Amino acid sequence: MRMLRRVSPLVLALLLAVPTVQGARGATPGPDDPQVAAERIEVSEVPHELRAGAGTVEFTATLRNTGGSPLLLEPYVTVFGDFIRPEHILLELLDPTTNRWGTLVLDPARDLRVMLPYRGAEKLSGTSGRLAPNSTLAYRLRFTLAASAPPQLAGIEIGGEAGPSAPGEDKRFGTFSDIEFVVVGADGTRPALPPPPDASDASDPPSAPDAGPADFGGTAMRVAGVAARNGGPAFDLTGVPGWIRAGAGAFEFHIAISNDTGRTIDALRPQLLFTSGGSGLAAEHLKVEAFTPLGHWTPVPLSHLIDVETGRPGHLLGALDSPVWETERHLPAGEFTTIKVRVWFPAESPATGHDVAVLAGTDFLNPAGGLPLSRSDFRVFRVTAAGAPDGPPRLRPVAPGEAPTKSGAADTDDGDPFTFATIAIWLALGGVVVAVVYFARRNRGRAPEDPDPYGPDA
Prior knowledge:
mainly beta; Immunoglobulin-like; ten-stranded mixed β-sheet; five-stranded antiparallel β-sheet
C-alpha cells in the first residue's frame, strides 16, 4: 500500500502532462519558424501596351514598412527593356513641395538606374534614410516614350537598394516591384515576340475575373531561408496576398528574374511550385494563368510531383514555357525581367480553409542535369470561404527533396496526436504500472513477520 501511495502522485502528474504536451503543439513560434517580410511596395496600374511617342503615363509607387523595426531605405528606379536606351524614355518625378515635375537622369553605367530623393522624417542623406515602423513613402512618377523607341518588351522597376547591412546598422529595405508593358512602334509595328497560342487552346477554361478588393488582402508570409541558387538567376515573388476568398476571382502577382551571375544564361526554364503540406493539394483545386509578351493570358498546366519517401503527391509543378517563355531565349548578364501570373480557387475547391505556399524557380528537380539551379523563397497564403482569416498562415512548407524542419512541414490542420513526447509519456506510464505490479506481488509474498523496508503504514 505504501508503494502505491508513493507512486500514485507520479502517475497523476504524468496523466496530466499528456494533454499539456499535445496542447502545446504550435503554440509559440520557435527560432526556426518563418519570418514575415516587413517590406512592401504598391505600384498603381499602367497599361499593358504603349505606343512610342503617343503620350505620357503617370503612376504612383508606395513603399511601406509594415514591421516593428526601422528599415534602411535607399529608393531607386530602373528602366529595363530588350532595346531600351536613355534617349528612348523621359522619366520624371513630381516634387510635392513645388508641385513641379523634375527629370530623372538614368545612368547607363548602372543599367539605367537612378536613385530617388529620400522624403521621410529620418533622412540620412539626400537618397537614404530610416523608414520607421508602420510608415510609408509615396512617389508620383511619369514617363514618356520617344517616337524613336523600338518595339520591345520593357518596364520600370521600383525598390530599395539591397545588400548586407553593416554591423549595428538597421536592416535594409531590399524589396522591389515593377511594371511591365509592350512597346509598339510609332508606326504600329509590334515587337517580334512569340505568337499567341493557337486555336487548340480554345478548349481551356476561360479566365476568371479579377478578385474584388474585399476578396483578398494582406501580404503573404515569406518563409525565409528556403531560397537556393547554383549558377541560376535570382528569383523573387512580389504581390502575393496573405489571403484569397475561394470563388471570388483571381489575384495577380509577379515573378521577378534577375541575372546577376555576370554571364549569359541559356536554356532557362522558369517554373512555379505549389504545396499545401499534408492537405493534398490537387491540380483541379486551383487555376493558374501567365501573361505572354503579346498581352495574352494563357493557362499554365499543373502536374503532380510524387514524394519519394511517402509515395504520395506533395507538390504541384507548373512549367512557364512557350508562349510565356521561349526555351531558346537568352538572359544576358545584368538583365532583369518579370512574368505576370494570376491564380484563383473555384468556390468548391477543397483547398478552402487551408494554407497554400508558392515559389518560383528553375530546374530545381534536376540539379544534376547541367542546367542552372535556382528558386525563390516560399510565399504562404490562406484560402478562405468568406473574408480575412483569424490569424496568420501556419503552414511550414518544404521544397521537393527536403526534410521537414522542426517547425514542421505538414499543414498543422492534420493534427496527428501521436507525437514523440506523447509516446515517451506512455512508455513511462507503462514502466510505472510494471513497478506497481511487481511491488504488489512482492508485498503479498512477504511473511507477516517480515519488516516493511519503508516503515510502518500510517
